[in-house]
Amino acid sequence: MRRILTAAVFFCIFIFPLFYYLGWSLGSVYGWVLLSIVFALVLSFPFVRHGPSLVQVTFLSMGLLSYLIVFCLLKDLLSLLGIHLPVEVTYALAFLSVAFGTLVAWRGPKVVRLKLTVNDLAPELEGFKIVQISDLHVGPTIGKNYVEKVVATCNDLKPDLLAMTGDIGDGPVDRYREAIAPIGKLRAQYGVFYVPGNHEYYWNANEWMNVMNNLKAIVLLNRGKKIQVKGKDVLVGGVADPAGVPGPDPKLVFQAAEKSVFKILLSHRPGLALEAAAIGFDLQLSGHTHGGQFFPWTVLVRFFHKHFLGHYRIGKMWLNVNSGTGSWGPFLRLGTTSEITLIELIASHKSLE
User: Fold this and answer.
1) Burial level of 5, CB count in 10 A (0-12/13-18/19+)?
2) What is the average pLDDT across 17-23?
3) Quick one: CA torsion of 209, 213, 217, 221, rounded to 10 degrees?
4) pLDDT in tens, 102-133
5) Of residues 224, 198, 222, 196, the one with CA closest to residue 211
6) Mean per-residue pLDDT for 277-302?
7) Across the strands, what pairs with 114?
8) Residue 13, class by beta-carbon neighbours within 10 Å (0-12 exposed, 13-18 middle, 19+ buried)?
9) Secondary structure letter of residue 136 according to DSSP
């Protein structure tokens, strides 16, 4: 009963006024019909999320709705300034934005190369290469061909260590087991590591972790594992996502850090960065935000996440927030690109800045 009441309040306060505004702005019978279809598809998402084809259509509708809002607002603001934009232009801009964003997403991830300077870096770690992928979202819109392309790109980079920072799988395991299988071909000299994200927990994180374990990834769930790099201990730790029980415990991970010359934390969400830096980690790798994925969310994401995209220095620790190797929801990118991050560690006295 409480959920029904919440849904009714949300509909009355947000959905109906938005529907009415857009219908008024578009100002035609065709506009009302289009909006009725788009809103019906978007609102049907909780009920069709088990049907891949229907999910793709609802996702596409989410993207189209976003751009109808953006360009209707633009049209009406310009009208206040005496500049009248034909409603046909509003439609055209919305549909073109979705089409172009889909093309960008379809092209796949680019390699983002970072050189991170580290104070007192052990000489043995000079030039150590870490490849990070995150938020691949293998599911209704990301299939086997896309995964194979990601795997081939990662392997071509010849990483010393490969980190997968959550939301790699997104759907029922049995349905997408074949699509995610190429992950088993990832190669890194010191290992392939994985932590789950919130979307794995939505679909049974234990099953997804078993899949990753069978694909030869080292699953880190509130634990750390030491690797030896040219005789020096390096801690690679990972935490659970807050969506799970138990939640993340970076202090528990850090207990394995004794004698480690460098300490890496894999955390799907970047929000743990302040705590991780205070504990003593040297590098945190995260994802989750997608950098907003497409405009206007690329702007709005800044109000919800302090660290939403790229690399940040927090005390002595580096944080890198990957923009997502795949996409969630509408398979489109506008204002961001999907990425595979290549991080190279260099001593601070060799800074290129």
Assistant:
1) exposed
2) 92
3) 40
4) 999 999 999 999 999 999 999 999 999 999 99
5) 196
6) 96
7) 343
8) exposed
9) -
